[in-house]
Amino acid sequence: MTAKNRQWTTKQDGLDNLELGETNIPEPKDGEVLVKIKAVSLNYRDTEVCQGEYTHHSSLDSGQPLVPCSDMAGEIVASKSPLWKKTGVRVLSTFNQTHLTGQIKESDLASGLGFPLPGVLAQYRVFPDYALVLVPDYLDDAEACTLPIAAVTAWTSINGFRPLGQYLDLTDPQAEDQEKKPPPVLLAQGTGGVSVAALQIAHAAGLATIVTSSSDDKLDRARKDLGASSGINYRTHWEWHEFVLEATEGAGADYILETGGADTLRRSFACVAFGGTIACIGYLSGKGEDGADGGAEGGLNRLNVNVLALRRNVTLKGILNGPRDRFEEMLGFYEKKRIRPVVDKVFGFEEAKDAFKYLAEGAHFGKVVIKVAD
Ligand SMILES: NC(=O)c1ccc[n+]([C@@H]2O[C@H](COP(=O)([O-])OP(=O)(O)OC[C@H]3O[C@@H](n4cnc5c(N)ncnc54)[C@H](OP(=O)(O)O)[C@@H]3O)[C@@H](O)[C@H]2O)c1
């Protein structure tokens, strides 16, 4: 064990101002475990936090400075918890740590890692014993650390209305939905972390998938590597909703994972199937109706419906990640289907700034990872 704990901090004042510093390795108290962090994956939200732009949850304030990032894979090195008696066990963080089951509460947001609580871009961190899940053996640390936000959000978007344990899997001979011919269609927007996880989950579950992207190369990769049924370039085909209707013979998409936000939501409404679900997840094209930034100062009138839906998790299905029990359900599915998360690029711990900038540029396909230790 090194004597000190190296960690990155942000004053939420820009990616260039991230600082690498040292503290003492924290000691677990009763009900806590100390984890040696092996790998951290980045989410779009982490770049927002570091740039002071994560302002749409008006009840949250982090204080500064803050260790960024929420998603890590690591190993238990000390425990004061009866739940985790052994050291050497491989674990994953959960994002809103007190969200254990069912619907998220506003109070759960206060337990979010990497804002408002200190995050995981460090060599060591203490976690409450309830805020960890086991890593499936077949996944390496870089793959596993991609799951807590991106994959759980995709999983919740597809299965959130289903009872726990009865997730959608048309490849299961007992599945009721197997009767549906053609199979339900999932639409993913872009090829970032949430969308790629959604394409993998949906394909493994026997759904048809359509993907949009700004890049023809990424569309090819989604078709070849992830089994996407079809894809459309939203830069060259701005009216991509018409393509979705054509590709589904007018029926539309049954599950739309709305990661685009202000510029995409109306098109999603135009190409959703009757009775379909639009999961309001993200805001890559903006949070405001007419160029407003959608922050606390932007005012309710200017906030896009997509963000209004997600920030209180309302039906038009606003999505705020998912509870621990759903995460564990999803890990069972991943293991059964042997899904390997798509890691686009792995950066070293000292290269964290480059990793954040790489993610912010949007050239990635799937997830960007920072390796913290071997
Ligand atoms: N509510 C939740 O619980 C939750 C959880 C996770 C993420 N999110 C949000 O969901 C969004 C996606 O997150 P992420 O981590 O997957 O991001 P990411 O990995 O950074 O994904 C970025 C990709 O999205 C695509 N994109 C960019 N602008 C777009 C636009 N105008 N329309 C459609 N696609 C666009 C691009 O793909 P191409 O290069 O292929 O064009 C880009 O590479 C973010 O807004 C994030 O904050 C919310």
UniProtKB/TrEMBL annotation:
Q: Which residues form the Enoyl reductase (ER) domain?
A: 14-370
State the SUPFAM superfamilies in the record: GroES-like (SSF50129), NAD(P)-binding Rossmann-fold domains (SSF51735)
Taxonomy, superkingdom: Eukaryota
Q: Which GO terms describe its molecular function?
A: oxidoreductase activity
Give the signal peptide range.
none
Coiled-coil annotated residue ranges, if any? none
- Which Pfam family, any one of them, does this sequence belong to? ADH_N
What this protein is called in its record is Enoyl reductase (ER) domain-containing protein
Its taxonomic path starts at: Eukaryota, Fungi, Dikarya, Ascomycota, Pezizomycotina
